[in-house]
């Protein structure tokens, strides 16, 4: 396939083609200046042929770049749907990113489960201690008779026992929360691999676009106008706040902006 | 006080739900985008709407506009809780009639402050 492309492409260097066109153009001007219009038209024909040849070779180059890019992405167009999915690195990357979503979601839910379990335990310790506090203070003030003290002693014992159990539970929850953060390591590794793939693809695409722009130029295809982005279109979290002037830097900025609008 | 929480990420809905519970609001319902939220709002008498902006289907800003255009819902207080931080977006939300705007990541204090401010203003008017 690539040999045929090479033969078709002929002249491989666009600079050679350009100098060929230049030489023809000069010859045509010279002929016209001499008044030899017959010769000038012949040169014009050669010039057209040279342009077609250059265009042809650039299209060949574009085809080759496209082929290389497709090979790099590991998308095999001959394959059936099922194996295509297995072989494509892009769909592999999508799977990896979905895995990141699942892992972070699980970790967030696990952490919230443990926190939701811990809050009532912490509240119970607090309310039991608050209940005991005035009684304990009255002991210190000498306002308690022996019967009351025995009663309080029992209560205090129960409080200590339940606090030991609750704080053990809290400790377990806290270390579970700590362990749930292991997603950062796993997702970090996965994301790094996807970043690497995106960089490779970007490199291939830049090459492809470069080649395509030569063809566009030769074929006289006008570049499509850049589409203006909708100013209010959702963008998600801003990752380069410092470099941007069209975004707020935090809640204080939001509040200032809204109050300037009469909020 | 019946509150509808709209966000496409279940973990964020859960965080907001927990924070609201700490503030004493226990009657909450969840929806995962504007399209599912709108019929829920129309069917039940909600007192407050908390919505994200960027969601598939129907975005939060579209939901806000739909709420303001609906004669039964147009006075419903709406708090936007979103990662969208472009000034044009905040202005757009303000013009569409949002009652408060909280940017993610946010703290429990900020959420409480904004909710209280909205209710103060409603009671004052």
Secondary structure: elements and pairs:
The complex is a heterodimer of chains A (263) and B (125).
Chain A (H helix, E strand, L loop, with lengths): L1 H8 L4 H21 L2 H37 L7 H7 L1 H52 L5 H34 L3 H37 L31 H10 L3
Helix pairs in contact in A: 1-3, 2-3, 3-7, 5-6, 5-7
Chain B lengths: L2 E4 L3 H13 L5 E4 L2 H10 L4 E4 L8 H10 L8 E5 L4 H9 L4 E4 L4 H17 L1
Parallel strand pairs in B: 1-2, 1-3, 3-4, 4-5
Give descriptors for this structure:
heterodimer, A: 263 residues, Helix Hairpins, 78% helix, disordered N terminus, B: alpha/beta, Rossmann fold, 5-stranded parallel beta sheet, 5 strands
What does this structure look like?
The complex is a heterodimer of chains A (263) and B (125). Chain A is mainly alpha-helical and 263 residues long. In chain A, 78% of the residues lie in helices and 0% in strands. Chain A has eight helices and no strands. The two termini of chain A are 67 Å apart. In chain A, 6% of the residues are buried. Chain B has one domain (3-124): Response regulator (Rossmann fold). In chain B, strands 2-1-3-4-5 form a five-stranded parallel β-sheet, with helices on both faces. Chain B has helices spanning 10-22, 34-43, 60-69, 87-95, 108-124; strands spanning 3-6, 28-31, 48-51, 78-82, 100-103. The mean pLDDT of chain B is 93. Chain B is an alpha/beta fold and 125 residues long. The radius of gyration of chain B is 13 Å and the shape is globular. Chain A binds chain B through residues 105, 108-109, 112, 115-116, 231-232, 234-238, 241, 246-248, 250-251, 254, 257-258, 261, 263, and chain B through 9-11, 14-15, 18, 53-54, 59, 61, 83-92, 94, 101-104, 106, 110.
